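Subgroup meeting minutes
Present: P.N., E.W., G.H.
Scribe: E.W.

1. P.N. recapped why we're keeping a running log of single-chain structure predictions: easier to compare across weeks, and new members can see raw inputs and outputs side by side.
2. G.H. added today's entry (170 aa).
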Amino acid sequence: MDLENERPSLTPTAPYRFPGVQGSLIIIDLDRFEEIVSERGWSRYKPNPATGLLTRLVEDFARKWSAVVIYGLDYERGTEEVVLEIPGVCPWELEDDLVDIAKHVEAVDVTVTIVAVCTDVTGIPARNRREAYCSYRREAQRMLERLKRRGGGVVYIDGKIVYRASVRRS
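Output recorded in log:
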């Protein structure tokens, strides 16, 4: 068997696309983090009530769903944003757990924006933030940014806002 002829072309006319499987891409980000940290006198460099809680919630979620942490879970500083992938799971199956995460974060008077979409996932952790938001994750990142510009505090799953925070910061 000649494997040389089996490889995909890497020429500019046929750009390489990571092979993956259908699954869920989840991005979770605390809203107005810098403002809240300075307003409340919390540390940015060690877990505070919001980042420590989000770290624990994401860890529990990842364990339950066998999610791959692509970027952002930080035990030493606390988690402000995180990117997860779950192969073979539809985002709608995650709705209850994602809404629970948003509600638990609200308990410390902070809101979080969560985007979950169905896409091809690789399950390969990123080395840095730039790599975490590579081409096939970029559209979900743009949606997250749009939702945050509109005030954040929502859980968005595949085209629909399924939850809005009751604690809204202006």
